[in-house]
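During the first year of the project, the team set up a workflow for recording each protein of interest as an amino acid sequence followed immediately by a discrete structure-token representation. This format lets reviewers and collaborators read both layers of information side by side without switching files. As required by the reporting guidelines, we include two representative entries from the current panel. The first entry is reproduced here exactly as it appears in our internal archive.
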Amino acid sequence: MRIAILEDTVKQAYTVAGWLHQAGYECVMRHDGDSFVGMLEHEPADMLLLDWDVPGKCGIEVLKWVRATRDHGEVPIIMLTQHDDETSIVQGLDTGADDYVVKPAREQELVARIRAQMRKYYPENLRERKLKLGRYTLDADARSVLVDGVDGQKLVNLPEREFALAMHFFRHVGCVVTKAELREKIWGESDPKYDATLSTYVSKLRSALQLRSKNGMLISTVYNHGYRMEELLQPGRRQAVARGVRATGPRTALTF
């Protein structure tokens, strides 16, 4: 899901975007109301976070414009502002905001409010909060991974950034994921200074989830590019493919 942030204080905008990246959302930012409206006309978003006092169109004017525009009106909107008086809060909600958060925002509360609005507007996307592939079931709300094994199921709880990394890999099985893409996903910026830390996270993820070839899933390193999550066919399925019988499940490239 893609969240558009209107915030004129650049540092605050990047802080909020970083929180949301870690929670699994994509973010775009603008620092004045006019360019924000221009962006929405060409790049619709799934949710809006609006500051009130910004250059150009203020947050309330942007809110009115969105609600009056047929192509953009059906989208959740949260006001995120320093206006904490009752009159302002009532005005924001009466103008069409779904929620109103007074700065300074708290990370977990803001993410919870965003998820609440996403559940209301996009109930069909609830299933994306859980992802099952092979022996692995990832639960985004619990930040946990359930791993099926010969001795039963094992529950693995991951730190926030490592879980975000795992979700990204499992959602892009078979694809090369660049280091720049992963840096942007985890830290909200693509500075190569994070490469050593990224490598450490990938190593920890491999160990925590036992992402080795014998378990059917593998994270391989693609030299000078990034990484690739691979789903490996089991021996029985390899034999079926070799005999010309179509194997069930997603197609996977084999290397013998």
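The second entry, processed by the same pipeline in the following quarter, appears below.
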Amino acid sequence: MSRTLYAGAARRIINPMLGTRKAGLRLFGDPIQAIERDLTATALVLSNGDARVVIIGTDLIIMTPGEAAELRAGVAQALDIPSSHVLLNLSHNHGSPALPQFMPDTPEQIALKGRYKRDLARWLIEAASEANQNLQPARIGAGWGECNIGVYRREFRDGRDVLGEVPGHPIDSTVGVIRVDDLDGRPIATIFRYSCHPVTVGPRSLIASTDFPGPAREVIEKNLGGLAIFLQGCGGNINPAVGIGYEVDCRDTENRVGMTLGGEALKVAANIHTNLRPGSRRPLGNVPNILFTPWEPVDGDACTHLGAIDQIVPLEFIELPTLEEAEAIHTRWRQALEERRQRDAQEWEIRVAEKYEQWARGLVDAVKHGLPTCELYVQGLRVNDIVIVGINAEVFFETGLTIRAQSPFKDTFVLGFTNGMIAYLPRAEDYPPGGWKLDASYAVPDLMFQGYFLPVALHPSTEQTVVHQTVALLQQLVD
């Protein structure tokens, strides 16, 4: 294996056609009327001459695992590498368009989303291919900081769940930074990871926007150079501390939150030295009682390890209802959809009914034919002793911290929202007292498994299974 690390980065703008609908169910589901800040996909290719991995950060909210697999396969084919070596992270930005498979929609919208998916596939291949062409000798380093732009959002009032704010509740406030430089210490790319829903640009803003990751990237790029890549961590139960944007024009809040995060990432990155290290303290000239610390060139191998592995983790559901119960649920939602259409209900009410009617049809089919397969995808990338692990679910911050604490690697960057999304991944203690109810109306979306077309809730033990399997995967990356 070559001991030289090579790196290259490139970016593409991935704006949709105006009129393309966002992916929201109750909120954030309106067509995009303007572009406030260009959506982007940024690719970083790392190679040691024998193996290559690709890390792609996007300003997108969601895609199914099937859609993600198709997009990753296109990039992998273009670079002649396995799909397991392509990591595709979604910022989970709610100011971005939907892809075709997430929501039922009109023929016009399906056509717009289909066109967007085709364009996106081309843009991702172009970004990765250009990054691959830009490969040059490089060095890599990592560091950590703290930023408190997030707040725990699972609020409970009078025994009811509320999508709100719980100030003072613990969160994962860590900002993980990976700096990739050329041999002279000039930045090629800076990766920064944080765990928080990008919803500072609220549902009344009918625009495409990067939300806070965009201005955060700009802080880094304008002051440090190179390209900045935001990777969404485990923000499934975290919202911005400023709340979901209420105003029509949310740019001021978006910029303030983004600059706060970007400033912390910049501070961390500025203190990561890849080409120089402090030498032994010594006097200068003949002055014996004043000591200096010279900076000395870093020597040795730039790449001691580069590789990727992945694993499918089969997941279990709770018990299905009877066929009679499932058919009754489907009948209620079919009637609700018809009634809402006839009375010209609000658009979000119709969207919800369409989604739930389609879910209920799947529920009946699951009861008739047995539980469908639900598979979670875990991917691990290792560069030297830096590890990125991606999970294709909306992972809670507690899970990310647990995996990091149990990892054999000090610098472990745990990501949710990676390579598509199957559902939220709540812990057993996050389920309602008495268990999840099929017909209950929950405010917190992480209990709305129907939104991901799962027939019923994942078994409460699922999160612990995922933690165990992910840590076992990380152990396989140990030499």
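For the second entry, the following points were noted during internal review. The two ends are 14 Å apart (CA to CA). The chain has a mean pLDDT of 95. Both points are flagged for discussion at the upcoming steering committee meeting.
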